[in-house]
Amino acid sequence: MDEEVNRIDEVARAAATLDTVSDKPAPSPSARSPRRTPGPKERKLDPERSCRLLLEAALDEFAAKGFAGARVQDIADRAGLNKQLIAYYFGGKEGLWNELSRRWTESEESLNEPGVPLDEVVARYLAQALDDPRGPRLNAWAGLTGAGQEGDREDLSDMERRKEAGEIATELDPGVVLLLLMSAVATPVVVPHAVRSVLGMDPESPEFRELYTEQLRRIVRRLG
């Protein structure tokens, strides 16, 4: 037992030292996964910073390649850290995926606040998707490849409450409405070619953003 405890302590100490970025030049990464070069002030032991960099890098890689296509080495190179820290802090690639999912769930609380009209809630989700398309793209990869773990069933209590309040017509199913709204929010960043084909607009342009947001608001208000 003492030998096992000592071995665990040695592994923990070794992994912690990896959090200090070496001054020696790192091998040149591939063009697809540019390595982030930390500044002098960042060359120190900082687990919080390392976790943040790894999560950001993982979100970039997952959004671009999906869970299966993302490589641990590419994530580490993008973060500018040793890949062993992924196992040390998150238990591996799946741990990164699960932590990103958990943080997304927490962030939703600020988007769907009690008392905010449904069209405003949808506009907030759309703004977030257009500002940072990595989330919807990651979600699309998960659906196409079956990556990640199945979460709990979606809580429809808010949609049911909105139906009782008249925001959703009585003949409409709250779950189906939610799926349609989720699809509408994701469309510009998941299938941007469809936007160009149907509307003849650049999905990243301010003109499209203004038009689509306003039209989506009007459609949502019509649901009631």
What order do the helices and strands come in, and which of them pair?
Layout: H1 2-17, H2 47-69, H3 72-79, H4 84-90, H5 93-107, H6 118-131, H7 134-145, H8 157-164, H9 174-190, H10 192-199, H11 206-222
Helix pairs in contact: 2-3, 2-5, 2-7, 6-9, 6-11, 9-10
State the end-to-end distance.
Answer: 66 Å
* CATH superfamily grouping of the largest domain: Tetracycline Repressor, domain 2
Number of domains: 2
Helix content: 55-70%
Number of DSSP helices? 11
Structural Rg: 22 Å
Name of the CATH first level of the largest domain: Mainly Alpha
Low-confidence stretches: 1-33, 37-44
CATH architecture annotation of the largest domain? Orthogonal Bundle
Average of the residue pLDDT scores? 81
Count of β-strands = 0
Secondary-structure element series: HHHHHHHHHHH
Give me some keywords for this one.
mainly alpha, 224 residues, Arc Repressor Mutant, subunit A, 11 helices, 2 domains
Please give a structural write-up.
- The chain has 224 residues and is mainly α.
- The chain has 2 domains: 2-104, Arc Repressor Mutant, subunit A (Orthogonal Bundle), CATH 1.10.10.60; 111-222, Tetracycline Repressor, domain 2 (Orthogonal Bundle), CATH 1.10.357.
- It contains 11 helices and no strands.
- Helix 6 packs parallel to helix 9 and helix 9 packs across helix 10 (192-199).
- This is TetR/AcrR family transcriptional regulator.
- Residues 48-108 form the HTH tetR-type domain.
